[in-house]
Amino acid sequence: MAPSRSSRNSLQSVDLRALDYLASPSANLLCPICHSPLITPVQTRCLHTFCSACISLSLERSLTCPVDRKDLSHDDVTPAPIMIANLVNDLVVLCPNREKGCEASCARWLVESHVREDCGYAMVKCAKEGCDGMVARKDVDEDCVHEAVECEFCEFAVRKLDLESHLRECPKLSSECPHCAEPFLNPELSIHIADCPAEIIDCPASHFGCPYTCPRSEVDNHTGSCHFIALTPILQLHTERITTLELENKTIRQKLELLIPPRPLPTPSSSSSNPQDSSTNTGSSSTTRDMTSEMQDYTYHLYSEYEQLRSDVERLNAQIRELDVKQDMARINEGLRYNDEMTGMRAAINGLRMQLHWLVASRRDAPTPNSGGAGGAANRVGAGSSTNDGRRMSDSARQIVKL
Amino acid sequence: MFAQKRLQKELHNIHNYLPPGIGIASASDLSIWKMDIQVLDTNPLYADQIYRLQFKFSQSYPIEAPEVTFVKEDGIEIPMHPHIYSNGVICLDLLGKNWSPVQNVESVCMSIQSMLTSNTKNERPPGDDNFVRSGYRSPRNINFVYDDDTV
Ligand SMILES: [Zn+2]
Ligand SMILES: [Zn+2]
Ligand SMILES: [Zn+2]
Ligand SMILES: [Zn+2]
Ligand SMILES: [Zn+2]
Ligand SMILES: [Zn+2]
Fold first, then answer.
1. Which residues in chain B are closer than 8 Å to A21, comparing Cβ atoms?
2. For residue A64, which residues of chain B lie inside 8 Å, CB to CB?
3. Per the database record, which ranges form the RING-type domain (chain A) (predicted)?
4. Residue from the list B62, B126, B142 with its beta carbon closest to the beta carbon of A322
5. Looking at residue A118, what DSSP letter applies?
6. Quick check: A389 pLDDT over 60?
7. Most exposed among A35, A192, A330, B74, judged by the fewest C-beta atoms under 10 Å?
8. DSSP codes, A53-113
9. Which pTM value belongs to this model?
């Protein structure tokens, strides 16, 4: 390596995210957010690993871990174990100047110094004293390409770097016409091309539909026999007429649109605004044309106010609809919840009723084992009344349930 | 740059492998993809139908969720579902407040596929007419209530 090379550092910066890798790296070393090998790996409290930049971006949007959705703050993010950092830094990447021709590949942690100090395709300052230009490192020992040299044909001063492109347009050199292949001096070429007899051109009446094409020099033979050209004057007239009619039609339609939606306004007689081509003015539009500009302003004003009101109403409508949807959802949710609650209550009441039945039955049976008779004992009165109470309760409970 | 690199990788993976019932229709431009999905079991609502999803990625993908809608094209309809409006807008919390940058096109497709597979109701969301008429293209504009945990 020549000493002049290594002494010149390139200022080209390396975007680690844009690098391409020699082999596809293990999936364990990929960041779950950018899907690239980790850059400055960090670890979260929940032990997930991301690029430092990726997780910061994600936390700005939502304070949760992207993988498991656990709550996470910026303080819960710490550098990943050094081993992980070493693994990703050792991955082999291709030189970012690969497209310019550098075939080097190296460990990722070395790529910045490769570009800064070694890469033959990185741009460095020109070696010549006092020259501010940049040059690829591999060319740095060549003569300075920024100094002006004289063009050998026109004696004009050009930078060496630009000589090649200058020769393409040097005024003392000639280039070929793309149509007739004749050589012409560069400054005269464009004048010739505009008029080259060999250029294939369309018939002058092609816009009326003539499909004929021929070299410019032969076009006169065609124009003598072309039917389209013979018809050109009349076609031209028709086209003009259609254009004016279209224009007139458009203005009339605009006025009609203005007049129809708002109430018709009385026409104050005053000088006619909007003078038009009188040859195209047929009688039909004469009444609408009497509108004064003042009135037009007034109509526009009304119209814009109307538009504004309409958009207001639309906006309100949309808001109402949105609220409706929300309310519907809320109501359905509430309904579901009530249903659930109701089912629970029904079950509870049923349970209570069962218990009550059991209690009543055991109460009825226990004190008077010979309860078959109709004889009235003091106990039975109590038991009977409690049975009635129980029945009533369960009945009313059932009614509630049915509701 | 960030979004592009990741989308290139996803596209590469998708061309290598996709789960059954999911296919790529087009991704000519890295910012808009179209994916085809199919419900694989015999759910009568969706049997033998192919539906087309459109993904729109912003520059901040995957930090921001992509905009995912069903699209109507020749012979392709919008599937019937209580969370899919008839203009193709999908109400899926995964694409809104529950988005996470570890999700990707494949996982979103699979979520939507299973959302269709598990559905039994041949209906649109409540307020579909109003929603479609109001011209919302994104459920983010409306505070939709994600009420159903079957999604
Ligand atoms: Zn986590
Ligand atoms: Zn990352
Ligand atoms: Zn290099
Ligand atoms: Zn120089
Ligand atoms: Zn010259
Ligand atoms: Zn020529």
1. none
2. 100
3. 31-69
4. B142
5. I
6. no
7. B74
8. HHHHHHHHH-SB-TTT--B--GGG-EEPPHHHHHHHHTSEEE-TTGGGT---EEEHHHHHH
9. 0.52
Q: How many Cβ atoms sit within 10 Å of the Cβ of residue B130?
A: 16
What is the set of domains in chain A, with CATH numbers?
Answer: 6-141 (3.30.40.10), 157-219 (3.30.40)
Tell me, yes or no, if B109 is annotated catalytic: no
Tell me what pLDDT residue A7 has: 55
Binned at pLDDT 50, 70 and 90, residue B89 comes out as: very high
Cα–Cα–Cα angle for A236, A242, A247, nearest 5°?
Answer: 130
CA-nearest of B61, B42, B130, B37 to A54 is B61
Q: Judge contact between A147 and A165, C-beta under 8 A.
A: no
Given the residues B14, B22, B27, B91, the one annotated as active site: B91
| CA distance readout (Å), B84 to A236, B70, B121, B122 | 57, 8, 12, 11
What SS3 class is residue B86?
Answer: coil
- How far are the Cα atoms of A305, A355, B40, B58, B129 from residue B69, in angstroms, in the given order? 37, 57, 20, 15, 17
Q: What is the DSSP string of A200-238?
A: EEE-TTGGGT---EEEGGGHHHHHHH-HHHHHHHHHHHH
* Nearest ligand to the CA atom of A58: 2
Q: Tokens standing for A362?
A: 């055991």
Residue A35 corresponds to which tokens in the numbers above?
């899907």
Cα atoms in the 13 Å half-sphere on the side-chain side of A237 = 3
Count CB neighbours of A60 within 10 A: 10
Q: Does B82 touch chain A (CB under 8 A)?
A: no
Exposure string (b/e) for A168-202, b if CB count within 10 Å is 16 or more? eebeeeeeebebbeeebebeebeebeeebeebebe
Q: What is the mean pLDDT of chain A?
A: 79
The C-alpha of B41 sits at a distance from chain A's nearest C-alpha, in angstroms, of 30
The stretch B14-34 carries a mean pLDDT of: 89
CATH of B2-126, one of 3.10.110.10, 1.10.8.60, 3.40.50.300, 1.10.230.10: 3.10.110.10
Contact A36 B5 (CB under 8 A): yes
How far is the alpha carbon of A25 from chain B, nearest alpha carbon, in Å? Answer: 13
Q: Where are the domains of chain B?
A: 2-126
Element (H, E) at A389: helix A378-402
Residue with tokens 């159903």: B148
Q: To probe the interface with B, which of A30, A314, A321, A339 has the most B CB atoms within 10 Å?
A: A321
| CA A82/CA A74 separation, integer angstroms | 20
